[in-house]
């Protein structure tokens, strides 16, 4: 499963629409969640609406929270998205099994069957492979919030390590340059908490907020990683063995 979690406190003001970019991410199998961070102030109606629209277009969740609630919110959205993604896959299968007249919901199953399906969903939520790309707004207004962001990322990684299945995090910040370009990858895929702390000491804080370009950059990163996995599988199993790529829930 692939997730993108954007942490921001304001409105996009450079490049293409982040809502359109989030829709492209969903088409690539990447769910987009957005945590809007406030601290002694407000994001504003425009920013709040954009945060909600990005998450909706990306098939994910949005929350606007204070810095003290950020860590809990990130963990909640990540786990909730895992369950939702698996549930959607199960519902599609149920609809195929039960026929065209089915709504594809667990309520259509007898109680015993429903209980077994819920148990499978719970197991998959803990055992499925999970990649989460954290995308941090590094505009100037976010500087006072960085300690809370760092703590929240560390707590998220520790919670993911408690899962049975493999979990990895990659960390990006935007803008990627003084000119408001895209995003930069600060930490490649890792499950090592210690790699996060050193990143924050060198994180540049700039004025622009290119949320749309940042999302597109992270989509490309996911695409590159997927291609790399497919190449490794081809090398391991050889060509013509019927393995063409990863199964992504």
SSE topology:
Blueprint (H helix, E strand, L loop, with lengths): L1 E7 L9 H10 L2 E9 L6 H13 L1 E8 L3 H29 L12 H17 L2 E8 L8 H16 L5 E8 L9 E7 L3 H7 L10 H27 L12
Parallel strand pairs: 1-2, 1-4, 2-3, 4-5
Antiparallel strand pairs: 5-6
Helix pairs in contact: 1-2, 1-7, 3-4, 3-5
Protein name: VWFA domain-containing protein
InterPro entries: VWF_A, vWFA_dom_sf
- Provide the CATH topology: Rossmann fold
Rg: 19 Å
What is the global morphology?
Answer: globular
Tally of DSSP helical segments: 7
Low-confidence stretches: 240-249
Class by SSE composition? alpha/beta
CATH architecture: 3-Layer(aba) Sandwich
Residue fraction in strands: 15-25%
Number of domains: 1
Largest sheet: 6 strands, mixed
CATH class, named: Alpha Beta
Strand order of the largest sheet: 3-2-1-4-5-6
Termini gap: 5 Å
How many strands in all? 6
CATH-assigned homologous superfamily: von Willebrand factor, type A domain
Helix content: 40-55%
Compressed to H and E, one letter per element, the order equals EHEHEHHEHEEHH
Mean pLDDT: 83
């Amino acid at each position: 499963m692939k997730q993108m979690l954007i942490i921001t406190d304001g409105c996009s003001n450079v490049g293409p629409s982040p809502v359109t970019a989030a829709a492209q991410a969903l088409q690539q199998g990447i769910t987009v969640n957005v945590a809007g961070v406030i601290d002694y102030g407000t994001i504003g109606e425009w920013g709040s609406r954009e945060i909600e629209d990005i998450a909706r277009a990306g098939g994910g969740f949005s929350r606007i929270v204070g810095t003290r609630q950020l860590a809990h919110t990130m963990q909640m959205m990540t786990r909730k998205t895992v369950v939702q993604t698996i549930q959607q896959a199960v519902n599609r299968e149920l609809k195929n099994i039960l026929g065209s007249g089915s709504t594809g919901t667990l309520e259509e199953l007898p109680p015993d069957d429903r209980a077994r399906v819920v148990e499978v969903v719970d197991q998959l939520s803990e055992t499925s492979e999970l990649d989460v790309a954290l995308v941090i707004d590094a505009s100037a207004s976010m500087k006072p919030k960085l300690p809370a962001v760092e703590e929240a990322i560390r707590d998220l990684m520790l919670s993911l390590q408690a899962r049975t299945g493999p979990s990895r995090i990659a960390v990006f910040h935007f803008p990627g340059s003084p000119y408001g370009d895209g995003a930069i990858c600060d930490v490649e895929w890792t499950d090592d908490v210690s790699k996060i702390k050193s990143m924050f000491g060198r994180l540049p804080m700039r004025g622009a907020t290119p949320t749309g370009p940042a999302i597109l950059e992270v989509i490309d990163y996911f695409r590159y990683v997927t291609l790399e996995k497919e190449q490794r599988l081809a090398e391991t199993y050889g060509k013509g063995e019927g393995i063409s790529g990863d199964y992504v829930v």
